[in-house]
Description:
Blueprint: H1 2-8, H2 13-28, H3 32-50, H4 55-70, H5 74-91, H6 96-109
Helix pairs in contact: 2-3, 3-4, 4-5, 5-6
Organism: candidate division TA06 bacterium
Pfam families: TPR_12, TPR_8
Keywords: Repeat, TPR repeat
Amino acid sequence: MDIELKALGPEHPSVARTYTLFGNVYIKKNDPKIAFDWFEKAYRILLNKFGEEHTNINEIRFKMAKSLKMLNQTDKALKYLKKAIRVGKKKKTKWIAQAEELLKEIERKQ
């Protein structure tokens, strides 16, 4: 990570990709708080670099929503999830069915 940061700089999309991978690991380790923190770092970089509707940003929104749901922060999760679904449908992203299922699950519990 240090080498990547020094070589590319802290705002490079490859750094965001690495942060996303770290987030994925922490989701698998059932540690959604740390996962969310990594996803949020990646989100900020990509948002600044590519704007609101970039496919990678949208996938990270979905992952952030999953993390927040695991933390029982459903209102915040819904905010990210609804935006991810709205943009994801336009972009025809591969994970849209999973996002819609997560939305249904959260809404059933509210």
